[in-house]
Amino acid sequence: MPRYAALLRGINLGSTNRVSMPDLRSALAEAGFDDVATYVQSGNIVLSGSGSTDEVARSVERVVSARFGLDVPVVVRTARQIAAVVDLNPLRDVAADLKRYQVSFLADKPPRGLRGKLEEVAAPEERVAVHGREIYAWHPAGVARSKLWALLAASSSG
């Protein structure tokens, strides 16, 4: 059975959209997924199942809606797609601290003009690269005051 990474948007941010990871794992297992694992309280899940990435995303969305009453977008990638994102690594020459390197996974290709907007708001030391449905960003000074990070968070939330 194929392995997938399912990324739930807007889960467990402060007091918003609180979901227990053990309950989420249980609900997904009951829905027919195997080897369900979550990463801390992030809403990031690795699981085995069948179907296309879009079918898995819709299935996870239905489970989260039915069990937790939340309508949150879910983005899914296969293990092979995740490996390709890691292999591409277009900012490898500048991203020295992995804690300040981000990849945003989008459900669809970004809208025309988003790359320009991202580059426009980026601080001089920040870097951004758009490849397919992923946006790579390097924030050497962190994300606390980063306009680039704020725009990425808004762009990848749905």
Features:
158 residues, alpha+beta, Alpha-Beta Plaits, 2 domains, four-stranded antiparallel sheet, three-stranded antiparallel sheet, 5 helices, 7 strands, 23% strand, globular
Give a short overview:
The protein contains five helices and seven strands; from the N terminus they run E-H-E-E-H-E-H-E-H-E-E-H.
Please outline the helices and strands:
Blueprint: E1 3-8, H1 21-30, E2 34-39, E3 44-48, H2 53-68, E4 74-78, H3 79-88, E5 101-105, H4 114-121, E6 127-131, E7 134-138, H5 147-155
Antiparallel strand pairs: 1-3, 1-4, 2-3, 5-7, 6-7
What is the gyration radius calculated from CA atoms?
16 Å
Content of β-strand: 15-25%
CATH topology assignment of the largest domain: Alpha-Beta Plaits
Q: Average pLDDT, to the nearest integer?
A: 92
Q: What number of structural domains do the residues give? A: 2
| Number of beta-strand segments | 7
Which stretches are low in confidence, meaning pLDDT under 50 for 5 or more residues running? none
Major β-sheet strand ordering:
2-3-1-4
- Can you tell me the CATH class of the largest domain? Alpha Beta
CATH architecture of the largest domain: 2-Layer Sandwich
Roughly how much helix do the residues carry, as a percent range? 25-40%
Based on secondary structure, the structural category is: alpha+beta
What string gives the helices and strands in order? EHEEHEHEHEEH
Distance linking N and C termini: 28 Å
- Sheet bearing the most strands, described? 4 strands, antiparallel
